[in-house]
């Protein structure tokens, strides 16, 4: 039998396999499924769609391993077997190459980026240079000179790839076994040898990442509304999650809105991050450095705020979805304006926000404030007092705190959303004077390695969890400064400040939990049993996810904050879970949250000994008001939605040739027609074939 007829039979067999499930073993020999693939997905806002997608049946292309930018000419012009599935080393995942591929997308079936084992030496940020440019406070009307990052470009390394739209699927592959297999397949079958074109069969790859939503948020929300069926098929979901907050003083959370004679200092930070790819958002410096510091500060303040309470209340606020036009903070401000939150804007005394603080140069912190609201004399006085309070907290520590140039605006921060509503005194603490010191902002490399969270060799997981890294020591200093400054700002006594100290042990455990793995003996103790099963052996993904599906980081921070600021109370599991405290205690219902956590296994025992934690920790919706107001083209509020999808997968196989593919297709179509005919015959004779009654034909769902 000659080669061609062998292939012909092979193809007929292959196409039969698509129809019958009988020969799955044949399929396994032909395909290599790719595990560890991470797609880029489609997101939509009021006006645009961004991200990637494949066609419904997946995009197929002949593998081409790109060796350099010059080599693009092969893909875009000279190669004889388009479309190509381009394999890129990460160093070639640049704006220039990606935009050229996008422009020639008719010859590009998709792109697979091989993620390196170690971070690149040079910086990389797929985010834009001016994060949340249009939804912060610096609009043309607030101060034209400060709008659009015209004085300071915060993220100069940003290449904006995360905000482009691509006409083909883009996946990230781990540099593992399978990736070597892909390269081998390419070298064996597809590479030009001595200048002559490769011959069939060629190695090909197919990527599936079809996205249901198109155009923009208004369009996909309209499609969602049309879905009135019994099993509605939504096409997109608003991005969102929950904010986590707690107060140092128990306040009645059932009575929303203004609280008489209550003065609140807000200690804010953000909880989320993103990267180009869907579920890799390690956010070490961009999110974790700040919220770990705030958690440690809240812990340092637990005893003193119970024993010598300052006369103002400190509200710890961890905002979700800030990456996507300030979802969490804009929602809290909206709720405050509408009497739907614990307190209202009139209750706010000042705001102290923790930004990125993990990479201090010369132990220096920078205190950013808003030059526009400071033009008002009384706000300026308050900001000066706040800066003084932070400075006085620094005194004995190896930390210095300076203010940047007075005309510089605030970096991207949740505080901007409060200022958008009214002038409020506030400061954002960060490790950068002007543009970010983070060289991997909102990228997959903003990870433990970049934060220098690493351990001596041969340490067990348990030893690593306890090992105090230099990064943990540095963040502990910042947490101590923050805690003291908050206490002073809340009206606490200066003489108490030296007794307020953050605990490096707690900081190092938190860094391990978020940046290395959340599945560890410490977190197992402090979470409820239903969450324990969700703890992961990998770094936490800080991508916000979709509305009201609270994500792992939200719950971890919720329970950590409860453990670090709350108290253990002696009640039974049942009473704890029912929030049913002593009958007389009407206060507790309205102010506290009770959580039954797993606890530790006592020595010589086999069962964990759970206990009840009482805290002021609460969750509040972090969903953009645009979706409650149904203003899907809002310019005030975030309108980001995430498309839904059905299949995300990749596989590689050999393709025979175009002619043979046509034969395959022909057989496929033939079978399809046969089955259509069969279906027609069966359904037209159904009343004969099946005795049961049929639905009336005009029934609609
Ligand atoms: C890879 O994926 C295949 C099919 O989805 C699965 O059977 C296999 O266990 C996976 N392998 C690994 C190492 O995850
Ligand atoms: C896009 O491709 C066209 C030809 O296909 C070329 O003329 C044009 O310059 C390209 N644009 C960019 C931005 O590369
Ligand atoms: C939507 O996103 C695109 C891409 O980032 C941006 O250019 C556009 O300004 C955004 N639209 C709104 C209304 O924010
Ligand atoms: C690839 O991985 C498999 C199991 O996952 C292993 O058995 C095999 O030795 C690996 N091959 C190479 C070349 O590393
Ligand atoms: C390619 O050329 C080299 C020398 O020019 C020769 O040794 C080699 O055999 C050639 N390879 C093939 C596959 O023709
Ligand atoms: C807080 O007080 C408790 C007992 O009241 C004590 O055991 C604990 O060490 C104190 N914590 C700090 C950080 O001072
Ligand atoms: C807090 O106490 C200070 C004096 O210690 C007083 O000036 C201030 O008005 C008090 N603030 C509130 C909100 O009670
Ligand atoms: C780590 O442990 C292995 C075997 O247990 C030993 O051979 C090696 O020398 C150790 N390395 C270090 C740095 O201690
Ligand atoms: C916090 O967790 C530790 C265990 O890591 C436990 O000993 C302590 O009692 C917990 N405290 C609260 C208030 O939950
Ligand atoms: C907890 O309460 C039970 C019954 O109310 C009591 O027997 C026990 O001693 C208490 N435990 C502690 C540590 O107070
Ligand atoms: C808390 O507020 C609710 C609603 O206004 C009220 O019914 C309740 O009595 C209050 N509880 C306390 C302890 O003040
Ligand atoms: C645990 O068991 C060992 C041996 O059975 C015993 O020596 C030890 O005292 C026990 N410890 C506790 C805390 O009961």
Automatic annotation (TrEMBL):
Pfam families the UniProt entry points to: Ncstrn_small, Nicastrin
BP GO terms, sorted: Notch receptor processing; Notch signaling pathway; protein processing
Glycoprotein found in the keyword field: yes
Superkingdom per UniProt: Eukaryota
Keywords recorded for this protein, A-Z: Glycoprotein, Membrane, Notch signaling pathway, Signal, Transmembrane, Transmembrane helix
Name of the protein this chain belongs to: Nicastrin
Subcellular location: Membrane
Taxonomic path: Eukaryota, Metazoa, Chordata, Craniata, Vertebrata
Segments passing through the bilayer: 662-682
Domain Nicastrin small lobe per the UniProt entry, residue ranges: 39-213
């Amino acid at each position: 039998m000659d080669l061609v007829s062998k292939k012909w039979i092979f193809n007929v067999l292959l196409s039969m396999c698509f129809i019958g499930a009988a020969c799955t073993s044949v399929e396994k020999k032909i395909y290599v499924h790719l595990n560890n693939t991470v797609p880029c997905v489609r997101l939509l806002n009021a006006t645009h769609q961004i991200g990637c997608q494949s066609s419904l049946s997946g995009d197929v292309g002949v593998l081409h391993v790109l060796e350099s930018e010059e080599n693009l000419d092969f893909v875009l012009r000279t190669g004889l077997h388009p479309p190509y599935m381009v394999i890129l080393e990460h160093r070639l995942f640049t704006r220039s190459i990606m935009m050229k591929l996008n422009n020639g997308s008719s010859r590009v079936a998709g792109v697979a980026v091989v993620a390196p084992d170690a971070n690149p030496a040079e910086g990389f940020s797929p985010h834009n240079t001016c994060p949340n440019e249009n939804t912060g406070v610096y609009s043309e009307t607030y101060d034209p000179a400060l709008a659009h990052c015209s004085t300071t470009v915060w993220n100069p390394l940003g290449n904006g790839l995360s905000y482009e739209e691509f006409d083909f699927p883009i996946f990230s592959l781990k540099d593992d076994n399978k990736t070597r297999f892909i390269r081998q397949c390419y070298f064996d079958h597809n590479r030009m040898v001595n200048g002559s074109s490769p011959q069939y069969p060629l190695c090909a790859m197919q990527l599936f990442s079809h996205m249901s939503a198109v155009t923009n948020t208004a369009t996909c929300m309209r499609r969602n509304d049309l879905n009135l069926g019994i099993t509605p098929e939504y096409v997109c979901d608003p991005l969102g999650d929950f904010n986590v907050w707690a107060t140092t003083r128990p306040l009645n959370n059932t009575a929303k809105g203004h609280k008489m004679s209550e003065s609140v200092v807000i200690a804010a930070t953000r909880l989320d991050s993103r990267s180009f790819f869907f579920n890799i958002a390690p956010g070490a410096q961009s999110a974790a450095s700040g919220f770990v510091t705030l958690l440690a500060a809240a812990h340092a303040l637990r005893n003193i705020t119970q024993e010598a309470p300052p006369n103002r209340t400190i509200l710890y606020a961890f905002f979700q979805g800030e990456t996507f036009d300030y979802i969490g903070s804009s929602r809290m401000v909206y709720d405050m304006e509408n009497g739907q939150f614990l307190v209202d804007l009139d209750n706010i005394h000042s705001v102290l926000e923790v930004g990125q603080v993990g990479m201090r140069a010369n132990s220096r912190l920078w205190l950013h404030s808003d030059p526009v609201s400071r033009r008002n004399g009384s706000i300026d006085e308050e900001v000066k007092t706040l800066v003084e309070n932070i400075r006085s907290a620094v005194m004995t520590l190896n930390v210095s705190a300076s203010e940047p140039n007075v005309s510089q605006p605030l970096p991207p921060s949740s505080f901007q959303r409060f200022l958008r509503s009214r002038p409020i005194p506030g400061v954002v603490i960060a490790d950068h004077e002007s543009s970010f010191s983070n060289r991997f902002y909102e990228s997959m490399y903003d990870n433990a390695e970049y934060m220098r969270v690493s351990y001596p060799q041969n340490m067990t997981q348990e030893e690593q969890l306890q090992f105090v890294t230099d990064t943990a020591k540095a963040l502990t200093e910042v947490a101590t400064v923050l805690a003291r400054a908050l206490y002073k700002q809340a009206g606490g006594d200066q003489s108490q400040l030296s007794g307020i100290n953050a605990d490096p042990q707690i900081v190092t455990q938190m860094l391990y939990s978020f940046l290395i793995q959340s599945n560890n003996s410490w977190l197992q103790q402090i979470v409820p049993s239903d969450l324990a099963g969700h703890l992961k052996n990998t770094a936490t993904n800080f991508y916000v996810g979709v509305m009201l599906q609270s994500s792992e980081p939200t719950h971890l921070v919720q329970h950590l904050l409860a453990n670090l600021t709350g108290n253990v109370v002696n009640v039974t599991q049942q009473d704890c879970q029912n929030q049913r405290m002593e009958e007389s205690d009407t206060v507790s219902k309205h102010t506290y949250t009770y959580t039954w956590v797993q606890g530790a296994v006592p020595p010589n025992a086999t069962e964990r000994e759970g206990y009840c934690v009482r805290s002021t920790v609460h969750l509040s919706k972090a969903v953009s008001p645009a979706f409650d107001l149904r203003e899907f083209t809002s310019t005030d509020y975030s309108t980001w939605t995430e498309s839904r999808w059905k299949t995300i997968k990749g596989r590689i196989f050999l393709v025979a040739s175009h002619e043979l593919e046509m034969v395959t297709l022909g057989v496929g179509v033939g079978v399809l027609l046969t089955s259509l005919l069969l279906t027609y015959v069966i359904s037209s004779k159904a009343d004969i074939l099946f005795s049961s009654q049929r639905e009336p034909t005009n029934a609609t769902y």
